[in-house]
Amino acid sequence: MDFETAKPPSQADDTDTGPADLPEPEDPQDRYVNRELSWLSFNRRVLAESENESYPLLERLRFLSISGSNLDEFTMVRIAGLEGQVQRGIETTGIDGRSPRQQLEAIREQVLTLEDRQQDSLDRLRQQLKDEGILIARMEDLAADECSWLENYFNTDILPLITPQAIDPSHPFPFVANGGMGALFRLKRGRRQPDLVEMVLIPSGAPRFVRVPGDRAIYVGIEQLVVAFAEHLFPGFKILGDGLFRVLRDSDIEVEDEAEDLVRFYRTAIQRRRRGRAVLLELDDDCDAAAETLLREQFDVDAAMIVKTSGMLGVRDLDAICGEPRPDLKFKPFSPRFPERVLAHDGDCFSAIREKDMVIHHPYESFEVVVDFLHQAAVDPNVVSIKQTLYRAGDQSPVIAALIEAAQNGKAVTAVVELKARFDEERNIHWANELERAGVQVIYGFTEWKTHAKVSLVVRREEDGYRTYCHFGTGNYHPINAKIYTDLSFFTADAALGRDAAKMFNFITGYIEPDDLECIAISPLSLREKLYELIDAEIANAKAGKPAGIWAKLNSITNRALIDKLYEASQAGVEIRMIVRGICSLRAGIPGLSENISVKSIIGRFLEHARMWAFANGKTLPSRQARLFVTSADAMSRNLDRRVEVLVPILNKTVHDQVLGQVMLANILDTEQSWSLDPDGQYRRIRTGGDGFNCHEYFMSNPSLSGRGSALQKHEVPHLKLTTINE
Q1: 218 shares a domain with 84
Q2: Could you tell me if 486 and 532 lie in one domain?
Q3: Tens digit of pLDDT for each residue in 128-169?
C-alpha cells in the first residue's frame, strides 16, 4: 500500500479555498462539540460494534455489555456532576457555550435513545444466539423440566441469600447500594388486611445469570427467578403486583484541599460513594403502578432520568454470558509475541535495552516483557533502586509482586500510588498497604493533581558506573488491560532520559520542580508549552512555504486552547491528521477554520489507547526528520493542568520508524474499523470500494520493528514498508 496516494477520508482533494476567504464561525457550538455529547457519540460507535454482522456473536454481545458499562459510568460521574452543578446554581458553561442545565437536557434525550437502541440490539442478538444454541431466556420461553430445575435451584441456592423486607411505618425504605437491583411486591393476605409492600434486594454476591444444565446453554437472570418463584418467599400471600428496578448513584469523589490524610479520606469517600445521591432509576415496563410510585418517591430521581424498559435491566452484566465456551462464536485466539530482541539476549532485558532503545506494541507484543524487566530488577544483585508509578495495577498484579520482591531483596524501592484513580481507589489503597508492609516507600503524590504518568526507573551498578534504565508507557501497569488495550512501552538506557525521569520522581515525591529538563516535558509544568512550541514551528514552516504537518493519536481532545492552536495551524496551511478514539470537541473540515484537519476514530477488537504526536519538521510526513513523541497525556484540560504526565521524544531511528511508519501510519490507513468525523460533529463509517485495510489484523499478523533485532533483516514487513519513510 503506497502511503503517498492515500488521502484522509474526510479531506477533499480541492484545497484551493484558503481560510482567508471565509470568516471563522463565531457561535461556540459552530466551533466546538460539547464534551458530553461527543462522549455519547463515542458510545454509540461502541454499541454499533454489537450490530456489526461481520463479528462473532459472543463478541457482539461483549460490545453491547461494554456500551452498557460505559453508559453506567457516564451516568454516575458526568450526569451526576452536571446535576450537582445545577443544584448548586453553578452556571459555568461548557466548551460549546451550553449551561449545565442545557447540557443535561441534550444529554438526557440521547441517553434514553441510547438505552432503547441497546435493548433493540439485545433483542436481535438474543434471537441469533438462540439459533446457535445459546438462550438468554425469559421464564415463559422454558420447558416444564427446565422451570422445575430452576425452582429447585432457587430454593437451595438463592432463597437462603435474600431477605424480604416489609415497607411500612415500622420498616422504613431500605438503602439500595449503587448499582443495586431489586424487586418490589404488592401483597394481600385475607380480605380485611391492607395491602402490604415488600422489597427483595438481589444479593450482589450472587451470579447475575443462572445457567440451566443441558446441551443448550440457557441463561436466566436471577431477578426473573425472584419474581417467578415469589410464592416461596411469601407463603400464604396473594401477589397482586411486582416490579423490578435498578438504581445508579453519584459516584464522583472530589478531593478536599485540606485533607490531611489521603488514605483515610478515600476510605471514607468510598463509603460515601456507595450511598451517593440517586441519579438514574431503571424500571421494567410491567412494574406495578403502586410500586413505581413508591420507587419514584423514595429515590427522588429527576423524572427525565427514570428509564422504563421492556428489555433487560443492567445490560452491562451480559459480559458474564460471553464466557460461554464457544470458540466458534468468538474472535480467533491471539497470542502476543515476545520481543525477539529480548530472546536474542537470552531473555536479559537489561542487555537488550543497553544495546539499543526499543518499543513494545501491546497487546500484539506481550506485556510479560514489562513484568520481566521489573522482576529481573528485583532479583539482580547489581540493581540498587527501583522507582515506579502505579495508576491502575489490577487485582492480581505481577508488577506489585515484583516491587515487593525487590524490597525484600534489599533494593531501595519507591512506588508512587495514585489513590485518585477513579473506581480503583479501594484497590490502590490495598496495594499501598501491601507495598508498605514489604518495606516499599509509598508516595501518594499531590493532593490536587493525579499522577497519571507511566514510568519505571531502575538504577543498576555496572562496570563503567551506574546506569539508569527507563520504561515510559502510554498505558497503565495493568496485566489484564494490556491484553486488550493498544499501548506502547518504550524502553531506554539513554542517560539524559534517565536524568529527566529521576527529576520527575523528585518532583512527585519532594515537590522539587525541575527547571532544566533535557528531553521530556512534564505537565502541568511544561507539556502544554512544549506542544504549543511544536505547533508554532509547523505554522512557521507552512508560512515559509515548507512542508508542514501534524499527526496525532489520542483518546480525547477537549482543551479549548489547544484546539484553537490547531485551528490556527490549519488556517496557516498545516495539514493535520488526527486519530481520536473517544471525545473530540474539535470540529474538523470547517471552511475558514479547520479545513486542513481530518479526524477519525478507530473502534474494533482492541481498545485504541496509545498516545503519540508527530510533527513534520520541514519534511512531508512520514519522515525520519519528523519530531516524534509518545505520551501518557490526552489533550484534555485535566491532563495538561491537573495531572502529572510526560511527553517523551523518540530519537532512536528504528523505534522512530516503528512508531511513525508502522503504528501511526497503519492507524491512518485503516478503513475497516474507522469512523470519520464530519464538520457537523457526526461520525460516519468509512466505506471502502475494494479491499479494506484493518490495522488490528495487520498488527496481529506482522511483527514490530524495534522488538525484532537481527530478525528484521530476514523478513520484510508487508504493506507498510520502510520505503514510505522519507529520508
Answers
A1: yes
A2: no
A3: 999 999 999 999 989 999 999 999 999 999 999 999 999 887
Q: Which one is catalytic: 452, 471, 609, 656?
A: 452
| 336/70 Cα distance (integer angstroms) | 27
The kind and range of the H/E element at 268 are helix 262-274
CA 388, CA 417: separation in Å to the nearest integer?
9
C-alpha cell at 421: 484513580
pTM: 0.89
Give the residue from 324, 348, 378 where a domain finishes.
324
| 17 is a domain residue | no
Catalytic annotation present for 232: no
For the residues of 19-76, what is the DSSP string, one character each? GGGSPPP-SHHHHB--HHHHHHHHHHHHHHHHT-TTS-HHHHHHHHHHHHHHHHHHII
Tell me the C-alpha distance between 378 and 261, whole Å.
30
Model confidence pLDDT, tens digit, residues 651-707: 999 999 999 999 999 999 999 999 999 999 999 999 765 678 999 999 998 877 666
Farthest-apart Cα atoms in the chain, separation: 94
For residue 351, what is the domain's CATH number? Answer: 3.30.870.10
Instruction: State the Cα–Cα distance between residues 326 and 465, nearest whole angstrom.
Output: 55
Look at residue 15 and tell me if it is in a domain.
no
- Strand boundaries in 266-410, DSSP class E: 278-284, 306-309, 358-362, 383-390
- Residue 101 sits in a domain whose CATH number is 3.30.1840.10
Q: For residue 276, what are the CA distances in angstroms to 173, 179, 253, 272?
A: 16, 11, 10, 6
3-state SS of 82-147? HHHHHHCCCCCCCCCCCCHHHHHHHHHHHHHHHHHHHHHHHHHHHHHHHHCCEEEECHHHCCHHHH
**Looking at per-residue confidence, does 300 or 636 come out higher?**
636
End of a domain among 269, 295, 324? 324
Residue 469 in grid coordinates = 534504565
Same-domain check for residues 504 and 589: no
